[in-house]
Write a structure and sequence with these properties.
Layout: E1 9-15, H1 21-40, E2 47-54, H2 60-65, H3 67-76, E3 82-88, E4 103-107, H4 135-159, E5 165-172, H5 181-199, H6 205-209, H7 220-230, E6 233-235, E7 241-247, H8 253-272, H9 277-294, E8 297-308
Parallel strand pairs: 1-2, 1-4, 2-3, 4-5
Antiparallel strand pairs: 5-8, 6-8, 7-8
Helix pairs in contact: 4-7, 5-9, 8-9
Bound molecules: S-adenosylmethionine.
The site of S-adenosylmethionine has 16 residues, from strand 2.
């Protein structure tokens, strides 16, 4: 994976880093792994420069406030010097100078599209692909993902050094059918919660009709074919690993509702208004709890490792 010689300073980028306990944890893991590889190869330990990227509205200040503690830990574990910087911006634009990054990592971010696909007028009473969505809606979501993921690969290939590795994890599907339960179940329950608010007169039906989520959960074959067609990276193995994680009835509806709320609240609030958020997620928590009482809900993570040509 890191076959070429280690540079004196190893530049790492984490794209869609968010702000929370996981943000710096992932960086510790990456540094730890590179140290082990250096020891195995009998190479001098590099210094690290880490760029944490997310959209400008991300709470970078809270990450920066936890840096002194992080640096102390790094020092205690005798890792080489590490310098962390924020890089606000969309990963659908250039973020870094040419050939400046040695390793790119991103988890649970690349299934977010650059925008809501256009021409989804016929996806009424849905906010994502469901069994009732016409085929043209599935195609529109897929085409937006193809454009976005292809642009993402092309931008990153300019920024990463030749032979540099990129490791991506994101939500996807293990089944070809885009309306399969692999990915859509919780969004269907969120739609049901919105429809309940329409029936109670708290939300306009037209607002539900005009809202769609800017995300796409691709089938592994779709991902592989975009990587091959875009042409800048070699897949490290021909497999895109898929790992499932399961919400079962022991994860209470409220916990699941909170995790979905953390990710979707800004876009729902900007479309439907702040006032609907509490009632919406109260109904959603109830529907999720009822659903989990009868059925385990599976989510598929796609994990891909690739190398810049
Ligand atoms: C679910 S969080 C993932 C956080 C973290 N990487 C993890 O694995 O726990 C998704 C993050 O992707 C960010 N994101 C979505 N679209 C983005 C874009 N175009 N450019 C940069 N970040 C983006 C969101 O702001 C959010 O913080």
């Amino acid at each position: 994976m890191f076959s070429s010689s280690f540079p004196g300073c190893f530049n790492v980028a984490d794209l869609g880093c968010s702000s929370g306990p996981n943000t710096l944890l992932v960086i510790s893991k990456i540094i730890d792994t590179i140290h082990k590889l250096c020891h195995q190869a009998n190479k001098k330990l590099p210094e690290f420069q880490v760029f944490l990227n997310d959209l400008p509205r991300n709470d970078f200040n809270s990450i920066f406030q936890s840096l002194p503690e992080f640096y102390k830990r790094i020092k205690k574990e005798k890792f080489g010097p590490c310098f962390v910087a924020g890089m606000p911006g969309s990963f659908y634009e250039r973020l870094f100078p040419s050939r400046s990054i040695n390793f790119i990592h991103s988890s649970y971010s690349v299934h977010w599209l650059s925008k809501v696909p256009e021409k989804l007028e016929n996806n009424k009473r849905n906010i994502y692909i469901t069994k009732s969505s016409p085929p043209s809606v599935c195609q529109t979501f897929l085409e937006q993902f193809q454009r976005d993921f292809s642009a993402f690969l092309s931008l990153r290939s300019e920024e990463i050094v030749s032979g540099g590795p990129m490791f991506l994890t994101f939500l996807g599907r293990s089944i070809a059918d885009p309306s399969s339960k692999d990915c859509c179940c919780l969004l269907e329950l969120l739609t049901k919660s919105l429809i309940q608010l329409v029936n109670e007169g708290l939300v306009e039906e037209a607002d539900v009709d005009s809202f769609n989520m800017p995300c796409y959960f691709p089938y592994e074959e779709e991902v592989k074919s975009i990587v091959r067609e875009q042409g800048s990276f070699n897949l490290d193995t021909d497999d895109v690993n898929n790992k499932s994680f399961v919400f079962n009835k022991d994860r209470c509806g409220q916990n699941v509702a909170n995790s979905i709320r953390a990710v979707t609240e800004p876009m729902l609030a900007s479309h439907f208004g702040n006032a609907v958020i509490d009632p919406l997620f109260a109904r959603f928590a109830t529907l999720v709890a009822e659903h989990l009482a009868v059925e385990k809900t599976k989510y598929i993570s796609l994990v891909i490792s690739m190398t810049n040509k």
